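Design job #97: recover the sequence.
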């Protein structure tokens, strides 16, 4: 007797017609034809059941603040940073908590059950850290939230940033952040990477830095981050976020850089939605895409995990908390359109992101947490194409969100029909 069985599931690894049995908050069995009784049964009817989506790079202190105190007219990264600087003094704990909780509701409804959020520690009030620590606790039953102490205006460039970052870590923020390309000089940037890696090593924490988020082909902070990770024994505990300058770097230099990143076992976190919007802004034509070298990094064995970064904030006026939208953009910008490419992209929204965040008990195997999402699509490739309805979102064995399937009703002379955008797809072969 199980508490729940999800029947006739297609799994992301290609297994079809699989039943997933749940006891309590854990997966008890994953096999075809489970005949035991269960308290509840969900028939997936040959649709995709995946472990939850995971967003390893987000800014929950800024989300849903679009238009406060005004819109970003140029749409650039630098105007976004300036705009956030205008809004920052007016931030209150109550408003931050309210917006973050609203975003978490949206995320859960899309099957997104783990988020790593950077938290701006520039303002000495640290109201952002206070608010998101409260949110981390309040959402814990249904969403894993990790927090990164993020010196948005520069660790050395902004007065008080060194002290504020340490205070945020003392308060319980989980991860050490940084923004070396925003320091005044390349030397200051390199020094900030070394200082922040030392803090992480001393405190036993991971590192996740905004790194080389520019179009500057000479930016070298990812190299420094890889070297300092090895120096401080932080292999596998360091993430490089954005890394957009790698797009513009010399190919010979990158052929040396990627093995250094592999030595550091660096997690790579590109953010395709925001970076296709922000990069190449100083170019006339042709305009660079500016996303880091996803295919080459994956081929070198690095763990690549895509982030959403922003939803309706000073930097990005779009977004919906849907990681499939992130993957859809990644396919286009990285030009990874093959079937195997798309499967790799889907992994970068799920298992790779879980690995980057160090989530325990993640996956659809016996003994894992009973966390999963039923989608109105047959497989990962179709899910990326359709960004389909999340029919059921399950957390620790309980259904916490449901959405009715999307069915269109056709009323054409001689051709009345119900159209299921998923079921009407015929895969090649
Ligand atoms: Fe970011």
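Job complete. Output follows.
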């Amino acid at each position: 007797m199980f508490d729940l069985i999800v029947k006739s599931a297609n799994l992301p690894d290609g297994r079809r017609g699989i039943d997933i049995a749940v006891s309590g908050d854990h997966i008890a069995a994953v096999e075809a034809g489970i005949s035991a009784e269960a308290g509840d049964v969900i028939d997936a009817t040959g649709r995709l059941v995946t472990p939850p989506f995971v967003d390893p790079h987000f800014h929950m202190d800024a989300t849903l603040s679009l238009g406060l105190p005004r819109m970003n007219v140029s749409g650039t990264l630098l105007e976004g940073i300036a705009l956030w600087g205008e809004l920052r003094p007016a931030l209150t704990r109550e408003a931050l908590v309210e917006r973050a909780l609203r975003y978490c509701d949206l995320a859960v409804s899309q099957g997104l059950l783990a988020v790593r959020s950077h938290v701006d520690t520039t303002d000495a009030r640290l109201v952002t850290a206070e608010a998101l620590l409260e949110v981390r606790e309040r959402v814990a039953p249904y969403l894993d939230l990790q927090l990164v102490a993020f010196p948005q205006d520069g660790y050395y460039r902004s007065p008080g940033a060194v002290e504020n970052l340490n205070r945020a870590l003392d308060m319980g923020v989980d991860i050490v952040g940084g923004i070396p390309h925003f320091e005044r000089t390349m030397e200051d940037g390199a020094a900030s990477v070394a200082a922040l890696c030392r803090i992480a090593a001393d405190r036993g924490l991971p590192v996740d830095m905004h790194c080389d988020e520019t179009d500057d082909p000479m930016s070298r902070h990812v190299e420094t981050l890889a070297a300092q990770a090895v120096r401080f024994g932080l292999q596998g505990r360091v993430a490089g976020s954005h890394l957009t300058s790698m797009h513009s770097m010399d190919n010979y230099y990158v052929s040396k850089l990627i093995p250094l990143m592999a030595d550091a076992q660096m997690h790579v976190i590109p953010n395709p939605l925001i970076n296709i919007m922000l990069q190449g802004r100083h170019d006339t034509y042709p305009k660079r895409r500016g996303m880091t070298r996803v295919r080459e990094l994956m081929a070198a064995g690095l763990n690549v995990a895509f982030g959403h970064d922003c939803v309706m904030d000073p930097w990005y006026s779009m977004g919906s908390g849907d990681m499939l939208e992130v993957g859809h953009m990644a396919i286009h910008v990285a030009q990874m359109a093959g079937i195997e490419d798309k499967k790799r992209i889907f992994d970068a929204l799920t298992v790779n992101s879980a690995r980057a965040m160090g989530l325990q008990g993640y996956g659809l195997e016996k003994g894992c947490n009973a966390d999963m999402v039923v989608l109105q699509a047959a497989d990962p490739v179709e899910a990326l194409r359709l960004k389909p309805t999340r029919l059921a979102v399950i957390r620790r064995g309980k259904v916490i969100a449901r959405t009715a399937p999307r069915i269109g009703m056709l009323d054409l002379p001689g051709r009345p029909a119900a159209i299921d955008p998923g079921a009407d797809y015929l895969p090649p072969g």
